[in-house]
Amino acid sequence: MGPSKRVCVYCGSSKGDNPAYAKQAKMLGQELASHNFGVVYGGGSVGLMNEIADGALSRGGEVQGVIPTLLDDKDHAHPLLTKRHITSTLHERKALMAELADAFITLPGGYGTLEELMEIITWAQHGLHDKPVILFNIDGYYNQLIEFIEQAMNEGFINANHEQSLRIADCIEDCFNFLPSNP
Fold first, then answer.
1. Annotated domain spans of the chain
2. Do 10 and 104 contact (CB within 8 A), yes or no?
3. Structurally, what CATH architecture does the domain formed by 5-178 represent?
4. DSSP per-residue codes, 44-112
5. pTM surpassing 0.90?
6. Which residue, of 47, 119, 164, 181, has the fewest CB within 10 Å?
7. How would you write the pLDDT of the chain (183 residues) with one tens digit per residue?
């Protein structure tokens, strides 16, 4: 029997310089699978994307990769995905990832990861979804972003009513505190 809930994980196609990022990504994948959550992610076989997939697969978890043609053509797709979705564009990729997911967790990453996070928060603000959006702040990676968001709230650019649009997690256990119940 497959998972009843799926978590979309946004993360880097690089591992970054801090070994904690890869370690925590793999552990998160393992824990999601152990708690019967499926993983939806960008489908890659490199960086933190590979770690989250390998972690979930190592515990028998379902892992769905959503990869646009421009990356699939370069053989970037993880070879052991439970299911691989191929989209025509990056926009279609993000829309399908959101559709397949019941929650979102963002790990360290670069421009693409930040863009995915900001878009899914914006969609929540506009009422396009009411799914949890979690920022997994491994080793303080996102401290400056969190400070910026607080400043934007203080300066009146982010409405205080949207403060709960983004949940901050400093450890895997915190991530699970914000995920929907999974029977």
1. 5-178
2. yes
3. 3-Layer(aba) Sandwich (3.40)
4. BSSHHHHHHHHHHHHTT--EEEEEEHHHHTTT-B-TT-SEEEEESSHHHHHHHHHHH-SEEEE-S--HH
5. yes
6. 181
7. 567 899 999 999 999 999 999 999 999 999 999 999 999 999 999 999 999 999 999 999 999 999 988 876 666 788 899 999 999 999 999 999 999 999 999 999 999 999 999 999 999 989 999 999 999 999 999 999 999 999 999 999 988 776 678 999 999 999 999 999 876
